[in-house]
Amino acid sequence: ENTYDVAAIEARWPAVWDRLQPFAPSDDGERERRYVLDMFPYPSGDLHMGHAEAFAMGDVVARYYRQQGFDVLHPIGWDSFGLPAENAAIKRNAHPAEWTYANIETQATSFKRYAISADWSRRVHTSDPEYYRWTQWLFVRFFQRGLAYRKNSPVNWCPKDQTVLANEQVVNGACERCGTLVTKKNLNQWYFRITDYADRLLDDMEQLKGRWPERVLAMQRNWIGRSEGAHVRFAIEADGERPAVDVPVFTTRPDTLYGATFFVVAADAPLALDLVTADRRAELEAYRDQVKGLSEIERQATEREKTGVFTGRHAINPLTGEKLPVWAADYVLADYGTGAIMAVPAHDQRDLDFARTFDLPVRTVVDTGAEDAAETGVATVGEGTLVNSGELSGLDRDAAIRRAIELIEGQGTGEHTVNYRLRDWLLSRQRFWGTPIPIIHCPSCGEVPVPDDQLPVTLPEGLRGEALAPKGTSPLAAVEEWVNVPCPACGGAAERDTDTMDTFVDSSWYYLRFVDPQLDTAPFESEAVNRWLPVGQYVGGVEHAILHLLYSRFFTKVLFDLGMVDFTEPFGALLNQGQVLNGGRAMSKSLGNGVDLGEQLDRYGVDAVRLTMVFASPPEDDVDWADVSPSGSAKFLARAWRLGTDVTSDVGTDPSTGDRALRSMTHRTVSEAAALMEANKFNVAIAKLMELVNATRKAVDSGVGGADPAVREATEAVAILLSLFAPYTAEDLWNRLGHEATVATAGWPAVDQELVRQESVVAVVQVQGKVRERLTVSPDIGEDELRELALASEQVQRVLDGRGIRTVIVRAPKLVNIVPA
Ligand code: ANZ
Ligand code: ZN
């Protein structure tokens, strides 16, 4: 009766919740709507400790808003396309769908056990044709707007995964998935024109200030990398069979034009081959072969010895008329700026290193007060006054930049410009397990989108195991009957595009689909989506700071432009939960410090694990599983649950006659917990809840007694607060208090401000100078009342042992001193 039996409690409630469906929003407009979303999982296996933490945080938020009376949308789904499924299928001679959907079922079972308060009827899998039909539909809209296009250019290539990667998927020069160094390859690939949105992606961050972690905003700002400067066109002189040509450079320092002593084009850009004179072509080609295998990081590393090849050509500085040798080198990147630079070795370190390697002149044009770069080998990059610079001489840097731009604009050889680090999003992949690109290539019509009524273009059947092994071309290309189709425009023989989409396309719009995942006439209904979005609280790992969040922001802006949504940012607030470590290190196979979630749940119970995750630290901080105490959490839960047995008053008993001190404690806790929840200080809210449990226990044991209505009031508050963190225990406690399920929608306890203000204090009662009792009293208790309370105390009476009283000194509300006769 009075034992807290975790297994029995966990067995009792899921069926009830299934029946009541308390987690499905009503969407009837009666209550304010709130969308709480966790980044949806990838079905890589069963849930792990990281999921347990992240989803505990999101669930706490969803449950809190539900108690506060919001109509909460808290859906769950799976990001279920992607390489791991394909690799597993190759290994097991299976179909990726088998592995994927089996893992989804495993995770779904675990999520249910973990008691995520999700509306399961809205479940979405991005690999379902019913979902990817709309991913394709959206792709077609982007294509029709000119926002999806194909081009041939050097792309990031992972030699191990045999597929291209978006810039965002290259981390320190390596494939973010497998760690292999990424190389460049010239390929015809599909892109989304995210660069058209660079300024809006930057400007709209204003809306997110203070609501997203500052470091995420900084990472996005940095990734977009807006730099102001100028395009300056240099004329490359004709040479023998090679005609004259204008080549623009991007520079942030047009003030240094007089200091340019050579000109560099990216060795791997097609331009380098166009420029090079016949006698140097072989040398350049050999050099290009060498460059091909290098990552961007290696190419730009400052420690590396500079390499390059003279092209045999010369560029004319438009301001000075000076002739500069044109080099091809790898430290200039083909896909940044214009792929060509004017080199100013005195004021740019990489140019200086190059000049010193190849014995090129160094000319100081900004006097910064520092020693000459030519002497020291250290480029001077600070502010200063222009020297040796014709009419720019004497100006400070900013004035010189403005003047230089005026001069080139006057000449027609250049103009002010803004350059971005952000590249268009390379979205095509040469892999099987993804959304097929819904384009048909027709020899006479070109790229023709698949008509809406023929969507989805489903993946071809019959491919499995070895047939999916990476070969650099898409496995889809091997299925002829799938590839060969009539052109939708002219009916002639045509071929399907055989690439699939980056899975980040799937995840760029899933939060919209959750509003009505069964809709089969559109990806979503604008009106419904506008009711629910932007997402009120998004929860997920900081590893998505750029990729997923930037792409989703881009998608939302395009949908806004298409008139499909009326907001421009998808995620109003973002919470990045920390990691779960073990022994101060991330859990990993190689360290052997992994902790199995299922085992933890078996050993301590779901609620204890959830509570531990949330109580361990502020949600943004890491949780070190070696430092926490799930057994301590379990003990606390048992203590809280046992209060239910002590309450003897009936449901609905008016609390107003109850013990003041306990009531005040209850109301203060409820009020503080709300403020703490709103501030994402979930761990502190739990600490407050623990204090309330202790105070209630003490009140029951020290004479207030289980019949006092204040004890019921306190215990009901405990159940409701506990329902955010430990849903099983809270539900069972609620039930023991005589309530019908479910505590999840019981409603946040009403706070009486007067009781909140009336803080209680501890009054010390001394007999002959010795402390014999501590009483919890109201701070404005009267002297008489306090004297009476003190004399009524059992402890005091025992010590007095029948003796009379000489004097009682009362200093309300803190002290009573009794001197016996
Ligand atoms: C002349 C110059 C003089 C430059 C000087 C810098 C200092 P951010 O701020 O990152 O945009 N640059 C331009 N395109 C490049 C490319 N494709 N590969 C490598 N470097 C490139 O950097 C802009 C500066 O980086 C440009 O300004 C250019 O060098 C170089 F005292 O032009 B500067
Ligand atoms: Zn055609």
From TrEMBL:
Residues 422-625 form the Aminoacyl-tRNA synthetase class Ia domain. It catalyses: tRNA(Leu) + L-leucine + ATP = L-leucyl-tRNA(Leu) + AMP + diphosphate. Residues 40-180 form the Methionyl/Leucyl tRNA synthetase domain. Residues 659-781 form the Methionyl/Valyl/Leucyl/Isoleucyl-tRNA synthetase anticodon-binding domain. Keywords: Aminoacyl-tRNA synthetase, ATP-binding, Cytoplasm, Ligase, Nucleotide-binding, Protein biosynthesis. It is an enzyme of class 6 (ligase). A motif ('HIGH' region) lies at residues 41-51. GO terms for cellular component: cytosol. Belongs to the class-I aminoacyl-tRNA synthetase family. This is Leucine--tRNA ligase. The gene is leuS.
